[in-house]
Amino acid sequence: MPLLYALLVGVAMGALIQRVGASSPRMILASLRLENLTIIKFIATTIAVGTVAAYLLSLWMPMHFDIKPTYVIGVALGGLIFGAGFAVGGYCPGTCVVGIGEGRRDAFAALLGGVTGALAFTLVYTLIQGSLIKPLDYGKITLASVLHLPPLLVAALLAAVLLTAAMLLPTERRIGHRPMR
């Protein structure tokens, strides 16, 4: 039954990604240039709703949150690599799957690049563990554990901040402001 829920949530999420235009590399580029914040507002809203929903559901049904270790150097380097691929390819993992569903061939190339990168990381993990993983490894921490607050309260506070930002941010850059080149 949990797999059915995951499938339904995935299909709904894919439909929403397609609906807001997040599967369009042009729209993603406009977001990265801060010319159109539709996708950024969508991501903020999705994180807000998903975080609160997950913690509320965990009150009624057992869930296992697999907290990943916080190793700063590796995460920062991985973020730079991911960000560069995101900017060059115009897709992230979720949007490239939706793009494939729309028939975009470049989305398949982006997915293949992501899978190749994940495989490469897996193959070199033991080689980079000492230099990128071990230094500045803070273990499996969460914002709630750092703040010494209940996870649901932190989720609600985070959701409030993200939803407020999504409501207050303009969707498009105002007229009179020229896009950056």
Tally of helical runs: 8
What are the low-pLDDT stretches, counting only 5+ consecutive residues below 50?
none
Structural class of the secondary structure composition?
mainly alpha
Order of helices and strands: HHHHHHHH
- Using the alpha-carbon principal axes, give the shape: globular
Oligomer: single chain
How much is the average pLDDT?
88
Proportion of β residues?
under 5%
Query: How many strands, what sense, and barrel or not for the largest sheet?
Result: none
Q: Care to give the gist of this entry?
A:
The chain has 181 residues and is an all-alpha fold. The chain has helices spanning 2-20, 25-32, 38-60, 72-89, 93-101, 105-133, 143-147, 151-168.
Task: Lay out the secondary structure.
Elements (H helix, E strand, L loop, with lengths): L1 H19 L4 H8 L5 H23 L11 H18 L3 H9 L3 H29 L9 H5 L3 H18 L13
Describe this entry's structure for a reader.
The longest helix has 29 residues, at 105-133. The chain has helices at residues 2-20, 25-32, 38-60, 72-89, 93-101, 105-133, 143-147, 151-168. With 181 residues, it is mostly helical.
